[in-house]
């Protein structure tokens, strides 16, 4: 039997590897030899038959850079090498499963050298006759799975796109490979068309939308029965990743990691064919597993067949057909924006204050230049004593020109330079505006220091034309980069081809990307009319081709109509049957108790505002297992840290996968900026904030937070299960602060008595050697064994992110030891300030603090050190988890960009903005109909109307609404009972939303699941209704009418000019045709639908059809 060794880089995650190995139940696991870096290649080839290399550096060292970033299985010099490049990712569940399978495969291969990689027998088709025979055999089967490999270009409409080979499997355990030349041979394509257009054969692919477009690129329009295993996987469990490799890891573990040996950057080779054969095989196997599971749930199966698969075809055709975009218009408008930027810059340059600053600055710079040249001349004379030296003559002439004014240093102010702009704005030679202050901790209390900031917040405070012009410049630059140039770069032959995703959210709502058509700005508020006109023109680029108009069909008040049906409330149903506006009716009743409230409910703004997500600035970060990550940069399925605030003394934290993550335009055109020493957060004005008042939690609006007693910054993470000996852990903290690496050894050099004494007091004598240099530096050198152990706990010289999963006592030890090194303590403020140039270490320490009930604020400053600059990061760690709210400053700031939104089950998430972390409310969309609390309702009304109502008023509103519509409460309870019993709820199309948290022992999770149980049937129905609308319109409308986009519950089409009335009438028929009547064993919708229709020559120029 062979021997297996695991080689672990000293900088990589030794404990993460141990965690995986200890979880594997295999009799040979104890025989694995775990060794650190040090073994030579010769020692490996003579001592071991199998080696698992952990970490990129180890892979590079033994196998070279070619496979450094890949999971791979490679035989070299009679040794099998298994690679695992990213051990830190082992705490991600799907990665951990793959890693465990990789280790198991390595163990099993000790007895069976051929076990190293799963294989599927394959046959490579090489002649037309063989292809014809294959097609004939395939058509005798009931099912066939297929997969294309391409030249790594995901945009199938790109001129350089190529399919490289095709894998087919209709008998599990055997695959056929069709080479590239056949995919571009007309006769061969005619044979393949027999398969892909067969009415009797079910064709299966995992990401069918992509493969559909590949077939279209090859000239084949798919027909007949198709199935997508990606959608099947999502329908079976929407809470788990649904990629092909993830599905294989879960359902076919014997094939886990079958892609490890493939280098996709190379040309087509046998490795790629082996991979493709398995791809086709596992897709067929997954289909058999999934369809069997789905057939047990008839409503889900019907939704799959009658909604998801037909709408996939519609969406794929929309992607393939694309939408017309006037690239010339975008480019011309982009030039206009550049010109407007130049114009605004020139207007700034012409201001008297700016010209005065330029003159003053020139005098200063000219004086410096003359002095510099004078010094050079003096130095040159000393060296050469030659007055005719050409350098001296040139420099002397330059001095004369400076003094005469013929030569000067600058002729304008560079408004793109933060340093120069700050000088212009805040010094007496310029505008001399008050310098923005930021709070800093002094020796006693808080200290405010000048920040010289020129960010958007600072510019918003400048009530002067230069402030307006600078804001206009920043906004124009953002719009040009994100929309005009961003969309223009994606145009191919006059069109863009976005990607629609049916499984991108757990709510069944469609999403799109490249570009995101659902994220085009709709309302932009800016003081400059000329700039505003350009910005609002983005949608005008989406034009109707000649002979066509753009038509948008929108389901009016879709959510409330679905609620009326679900609740069976007669008053709501009758209101809609009589064509009344439910908002106006409710408002008129409430208005009897409170003046002017009806106006808010009746106004068209209510329809817009109730759809606005409560979101964060896009730079806001959340804590993940790989560190602080911006919400907009989260990976699919990546876990974040949510909070469970039960009581003031019980605030638990836990890892959770977000329910939804998305961005959208900020319809308010403003954000609220909250700021003090423990908060620096920017949120939409309607964002509910978590606060505490009178020793209990409450929700409030951002601008009311300073009226509450305070807010919570940290909690307790009880899920940490990694225990490290405290002595070693503290030693690692000391090493990060002051240690240096020399080979395997860790060394320290101190001159400060405090550190020397602390080192001697902490370390055991047998673990280090001490010496004193002639310069008076006391040097401590750790033993090799101790050095290796410590280095195994760090990532280079940084704290690793896996420390977040340390036990609470271990985290407390880290925080305690950090106070002794690179820190100074402020006893009056019960905190210490930790300073370090390693950003990751500071970020990790901050996260550890917040997971251990201590708040920590990070600030980064440039500090001059000798001849270069280093960023010094300062972390203030305070021995408390909360902050008083009385000293919070709040102000509205202009912001027209996209905002970042996410939802987590508990409703509360740990976020960080501008280096300061705290626990806050997630995004949400509240209303009385969704079981909102009194406090939440008060905050909601404040956000929408600016009115502050008392609890008594709120209760009157509640009594009026629920008195008028008594079945709402019964509906709430009905769905709470359903989810409590079954663990899931269904929407009207029969699709499940699984909410296992409802059975949690944690009441916070239960409450969140109950709220989702009420919301999901409504939101899920609307999401699928949009897909059903597209299917129905595709069947009813002639091919000359083209659907090209969908945004939430609206559909956008190209309609021939002469068919506008005809198409509008067909769309209006949808008010009387209900999908539940056509496809599902459910009662007809209790209320009529209403379709609002708009038409125009472009997407940005639509007018409502009144008839």
Structural commentary:
- By secondary structure, the protein is of the alpha+beta class.
- The chain contains 35 helices and 48 strands.
- The strands form 15 sheets. A six-stranded mixed sheet has the order 6-9-8-7-10-11, sandwiched between helices. Strands 2-1-3-5-4 form a five-stranded mixed sheet, with helices on both faces.
- The protein is globular and about 95 Å long.
- Residues 88-95, 441-446, 587-613 and 863-868 have low confidence and may be disordered.
What key attributes describe this structure?
single chain, 1107 residues, alpha+beta, 40% helix
In short:
40% of the residues lie in helices and 22% in strands.
Count of helical regions = 35
Fraction of residues in β-strands: 15-25%
- Largest sheet entry: 6 strands, mixed
- Low-confidence stretches at least 5 residues in length (pLDDT < 50)? 88-95, 441-446, 587-613, 863-868
CA radius of gyration: 33 Å
Decide which structural class fits the backbone.
Answer: alpha+beta
Q: Please, what is the average pLDDT? A: 80
- Globular, elongated, flat, extended or rod-shaped: what is the shape? globular
Helical content (DSSP H or I, runs of 4+): 40-55%
Distance between the termini: 83 Å
- Which strand order do you get reading across the main beta sheet? 6-9-8-7-10-11
Per DSSP E runs of 2 or more residues, the count of β-strands stands at: 48
SSE layout and pairings?
Layout lengths: L3 E5 L5 H10 L9 E4 L4 H7 L2 E5 L1 H8 L9 E4 L2 E6 L8 H16 L13 E3 L3 H12 L3 E8 L12 E9 L2 E6 H4 L2 H11 L5 E4 L2 H10 L8 E3 H8 L7 H8 L18 H25 L3 H24 L1 E2 L2 H23 L2 H33 L5 H15 L13 H9 L10 E5 L4 E5 L5 H5 L4 H24 L6 E2 L2 E3 L9 E3 L15 H7 L12 E8 L2 H10 L2 H8 L4 H10 L5 H6 L1 H6 L11 E4 L2 E4 L9 E8 L2 E7 L3 E6 L4 E7 L2 E5 L5 E5 L2 E5 L9 E3 L3 E2 L8 H13 L1 E3 L2 E6 L2 H10 L5 E5 L5 E5 L1 H8 L16 H11 L4 E4 L4 E6 L2 H12 L4 E11 L2 E11 L3 E3 L4 E6 L3 E6 L4 E6 L2 E6 L12 H12 L5 H14 L2 H16 L1 E3 L5 E3 L8 H34 L5 E6 L2 E7 L3 H10 ...
Parallel strand pairs: 1-2, 1-3, 3-5, 6-9, 7-10, 10-11, 22-29
Antiparallel strand pairs: 4-5, 7-8, 8-9, 12-15, 13-14, 16-17, 18-46, 18-47, 19-20, 19-41, 21-22, 23-40, 24-25, 24-39, 26-27, 28-38, 30-31, 31-33, 32-33, 34-35, 35-37, 36-37, 41-42, 43-44, 45-46, 47-48
Helix pairs in contact: 5-7, 8-12, 9-11, 10-11, 12-33, 13-18, 14-15, 20-32, 20-33, 25-27, 25-28, 30-31, 32-33
């Amino acid at each position: 039997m062979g021997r297996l060794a695991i080689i672990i880089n000293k900088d990589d995650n030794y404990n993460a590897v141990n965690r995986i190995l200890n979880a594997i139940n295999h009799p040979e696991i104890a025989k694995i030899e775990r060794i650190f870096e040090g073994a030579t290649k010769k020692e490996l080839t003579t001592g071991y038959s199998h080696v698992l290399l952990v970490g990129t550096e180890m892979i590079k060292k033994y196998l070279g850079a070619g496979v450094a970033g890949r999971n791979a299985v490679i035989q070299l010099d009679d040794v099998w090498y298994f690679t695992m490049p990213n051990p830190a990712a082992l705490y991600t569940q799907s990665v951990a499963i793959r890693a465990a399978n990789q280790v198991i495969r390595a163990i099993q291969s000790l007895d069976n050298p051929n076990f190293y990689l799963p294989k599927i027998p394959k046959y490579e088709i090489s002649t037309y006759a063989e292809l014809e025979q294959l097609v004939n055999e395939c058509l005798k089967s009931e099912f066939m799975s297929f997969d294309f490999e391409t030249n790594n270009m995901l945009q199938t409409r790109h001129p350089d796109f190529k399919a490289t080979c095709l894998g087919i499997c209709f008998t599990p355990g055997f695959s056929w490979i069709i080479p590239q030349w056949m995919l571009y041979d007309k006769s061969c394509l005619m044979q393949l068309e027999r398969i892909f257009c067969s009415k009797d054969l079910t064709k299966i692919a995992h990401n069918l939308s992509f493969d559909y477009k590949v077939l279209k690129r090859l000239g084949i329009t798919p027909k007949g029965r198709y199935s997508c295993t990606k959608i099947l996987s999502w329908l079976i469990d929407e809470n788990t990743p649904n990629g092909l490799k993830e599905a294989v890891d879960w359902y076919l573990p014997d094939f886990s990691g079958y892609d490890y040996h493939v280098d996709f950057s190379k040309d087509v080779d046998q490795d790629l064919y082996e991979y493709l054969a398995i791809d086709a095989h596992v897709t067929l196997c997954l289909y058999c597993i999934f369809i069997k599971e789905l057939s047990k749930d008839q409503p889900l199966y019907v939704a799959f067949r009658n909604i998801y698969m037909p709408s996939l075809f519609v969406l794929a055709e929309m992607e393939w057909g694309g939408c017309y975009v006037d690239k010339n218009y975008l480019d011309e408008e982009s030039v206009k924006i550049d010109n407007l930027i130049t114009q605004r810059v020139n207007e700034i340059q012409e201001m008297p204050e700016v010209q005065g600053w330029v003159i003053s600055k020139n005098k200063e710079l000219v004086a410096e230049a003359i002095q510099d040249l004078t010094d050079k001349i003096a130095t040159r004379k000393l060296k050469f004593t030659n007055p005719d030296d050409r350098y001296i003559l040139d420099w002397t002439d330059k001095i004369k020109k400076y003094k005469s004014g013929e030569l000067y240093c600058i002729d304008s102010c560079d408004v793109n330079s933060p340093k120069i702009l700050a000088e212009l704005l805040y010094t007496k030679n310029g505008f001399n505006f008050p310098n923005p202050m930021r709070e800093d901790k002094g020796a006693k209390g808080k200290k405010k220091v000048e920040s010289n900031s020129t960010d958007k917040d600072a510019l918003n405070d400048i009530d002067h034309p230069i402030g307006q012009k600078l804001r206009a410049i920043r906004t124009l630059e953002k719009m040009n980069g994100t929309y005009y140039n961003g969309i223009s770069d994606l145009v191919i032959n006059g069109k863009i081809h976005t990607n629609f995703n049916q499984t991108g959210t757990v709510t069944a709502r469609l999403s799109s990307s490249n570009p995101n058509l659902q994220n085009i700005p709709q309302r932009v508020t800016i003081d400059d009319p000329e700039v505003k006109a350009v910005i609002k023109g983005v949608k005008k680029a989406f034009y109707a081709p000649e002979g066509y108009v753009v038509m948008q069909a929108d389901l009016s008040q879709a959510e409330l109509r679905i609620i009326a049906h679900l609740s069976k409330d007669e008053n709501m149903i009758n209101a809609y049957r009589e064509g009344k506006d439910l908002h106006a009716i409710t408002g008129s009743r409430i208005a009897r108790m409170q003046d002017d409230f009806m106006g808010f409910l009746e106004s068209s703004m209510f329809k817009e505002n109730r759809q606005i997500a409560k979101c964060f600035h896009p730079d806001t970060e959340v804590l993940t297992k790989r560190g602080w990550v911006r919400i907009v940069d989260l990976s699919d399925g990546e876990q974040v840290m949510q909070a469970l605030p039960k009581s003031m003394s019980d605030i638990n934290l836990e890892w959770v996968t977000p329910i939804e993550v998305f961005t959208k335009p900020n319809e308010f055109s403003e954000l609220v900026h909250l700021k003090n020493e423990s908060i620096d957060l920017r949120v939409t004005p309607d964002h509910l904030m978590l606060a505490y008042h009178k020793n209990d939690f409450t929700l409030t609006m951002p601008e009311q937070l300073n009226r509450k007693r305070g807010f919570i910054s940290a909690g307790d993470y009880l899920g940490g299960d990694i225990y490290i000996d405290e002595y070693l852990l503290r030693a690692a903290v000391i090493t990060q602060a002051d240690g240096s690496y020399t080979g395997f050894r860790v060394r320290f050099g101190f001159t400060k008595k405090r550190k020397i004494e602390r080192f001697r007091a902490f370390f055991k004598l047998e673990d280090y050697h001490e010496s004193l240099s002639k310069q008076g530096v006391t040097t401590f050198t750790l033993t090799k064994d101790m050095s290796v152990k410590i280095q195994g706990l760090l990532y280079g010289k940084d704290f690793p992110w896996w420390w977040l999963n340390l036990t609470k006592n271990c985290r407390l030890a880290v925080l305690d030891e950090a106070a002794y090194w690179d820190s100074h303590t402020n006893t009056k403020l019960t905190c210490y300030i930790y300073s370090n140039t390693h950003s990751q270490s500071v970020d990790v320490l901050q996260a550890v603090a917040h997971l251990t009930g201590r708040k920590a604020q990070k600030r980064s400053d440039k500090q001059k050190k000798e001849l270069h600059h280093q960023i010094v990061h300062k972390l203030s760690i305070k021995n408390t988890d909360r902050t008083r709210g009385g000293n919070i400053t709040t102000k509205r700031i202009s912001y027209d960009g996209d905002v970042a939104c996410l939802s987590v089950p508990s409703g509360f998430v740990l976020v960080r903005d501008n280096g300061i972390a705290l626990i806050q409310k997630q995004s949400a969309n509240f209303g009385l109909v969704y079981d909102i609390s009194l406090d939440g309702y008060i905050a909601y009304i404040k956000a929408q109307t600016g009115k502050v109502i008392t609890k008594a008023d709120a209760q009157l509103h509640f009594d009026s609404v629920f008195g008028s519509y008594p079945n709402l409460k019964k509906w709430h309870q009905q769905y709470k009972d359903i989810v409590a019993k079954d663990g899931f709820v269904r929407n009207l199309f029969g699709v499940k939303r699984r909410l296992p948290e409802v059975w949690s022992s944690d009441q916070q999770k239960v409450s969140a699941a109950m709220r989702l149980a009420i919301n999901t049937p409504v939101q899920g129905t609307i999401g699928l209704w949009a897909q059903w609308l597209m299917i129905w319109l595709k069947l009813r409308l002639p091919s000359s009418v083209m659907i090209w986009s969908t945004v939430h519950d609206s559909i956008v089409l190209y309609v021939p000019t002469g068919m506008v009335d005809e198409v509008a009438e067909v769309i209006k028929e949808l008010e009387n045709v209900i999908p539940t009547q056509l496809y599902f064993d459910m009662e007809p919708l209790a209320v009529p639908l209403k379709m609002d229709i708009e038409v125009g020559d472009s997407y940005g120029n639509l007018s409502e059809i009144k008839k």
